[in-house]
TrEMBL record:
Keywords: Hydrolase, Magnesium, Metal-binding. It comes from the Bacteria. Its cofactor is Mg(2+). This is Inositol-1-monophosphatase. Belongs to the inositol monophosphatase superfamily. Its EC number is 3.1.3.25. One of its GO terms (molecular function) is hydrolase activity. Pfam families: Inositol_P (PF00459). It catalyses: a myo-inositol phosphate + H2O = myo-inositol + phosphate. The keyword Metal-binding applies. The keyword Magnesium applies.
Length: 264
């Protein structure tokens, strides 16, 4: 690929810096401070440190832009047209259990549209990135979604509602429908990486409900720039606000939606 744009340099720079902080904490998880936000909803000192690094970096580089971040919530900026959407550690549960499958996710929203995203897994140094109109990349390799058309050949990723969350019964029905038709199902525990892996062709598709904007904003542009498609599971307008997301190539998306509809 050619030279990174200054926007990409800023986003990747922040993600790498946060990634270094996460790697340090990952090396010492036995000492990690953990608290609970709700049932099966943990936050650690590593989530907070990573968020701090990203907030500081991006505020310095683009003063005035607003933020939506998982841990500190909405931070209004003076520039009303730009907002960073940030998950400082996507896959906290993996992280806490010493599993090297977690990521920093940063998206830029411009006038309500996601125009750029980076999803960085510092444990394996994989930087997924895309800017609208210029393709999706893993480090310096161009990405393309998988070409498989049939569910019978497909590996599909999903996310399970945790203990205490609504939607278990519906999820089990959906799982039953999809599982009965696919070669394999995976639940790896980081929605931003699930989407990035769809972009990379490692998964043929992905669905999950009740995600937050910070879980999916960056992955969304990465999937689209890799030639993939995203839809709101129930046909709603705005997947970022409902968080009910399904992704894949055009054929796979249609087949997945068919199965999810049949679960109703
Ligand atoms: C979680 C992960 C997980 C998804 C959960 C999210 P977090 O994010 O993306 O894959 O199933 O719904 O909350 O809390 O680890 O940032
Ligand atoms: Ca969380
Ligand atoms: Ca998340
Ligand atoms: Ca998180």
């Amino acid at each position: 690929m050619g030279q990174l744009t200054s926007l990409m340099q800023i986003m990747q720079g922040a993600a790498r810096k946060a990634g270094r902080a996460l790697n340090r904490d990952f090396g010492e998880i036995e000492h990690l401070q953990v608290s609970r936000k709700g049932p099966a909803d943990f936050v650690t000192a590593a989530d907070r440190r990573s968020e701090e690094v990203i907030f500081k970096e991006l505020s310095e580089k683009r003063p005035g832009y607003g933020f939506l971040m998982e841990e500190r919530g909405e931070v209004a900026g003076t520039d009303k047209t730009h907002r960073w959407i940030v998950d400082p550690l996507d896959g906290t549960l993996n992280f806490m259990h010493g599993q090297p499958h977690f990521a920093v996710s940063i998206a830029l929203e411009r006038m309500g549209e996601i125009v750029a995203g980076v999803v960085y897994n510092p444990a394996v140094d994989e930087m997924f990135h895309a800017e609208k109109g210029t393709g999706a990349w893993l480090n310096d390799r161009r990405l393309r979604v998988a070409a498989r058309k049939e569910l019978a050949d497909a590996v599909i990723a999903t996310g399970t509602p945790f203990y205490g969350k609504k939607g278990h019964a519906r999820f089990l029905k959906e799982l039953h429908q999809v599982m009965g038709a696919t070669a394999g199902i995976r639940r790896y525990g980081s929605a931003s990486l699930d989407l990035s892996w769809v972009a990379a062709g490692r998964f043929d598709g992905f669905w999950e409900r009740d995600l937050k904007a910070w879980d999916i904003a960056a992955g969304l542009v990465i999937v689209r720039e890799a030639g993939g498609f995203i839809a709101e599971i129930d046909g709603g307008e705005d997947v970022l606000s409902t968080g009910n997301i399904v992704a894949g190539n055009e054929d796979m998306l249609a087949r997945l939606i068919e199965k999810l509809d049949a679960a109703r």
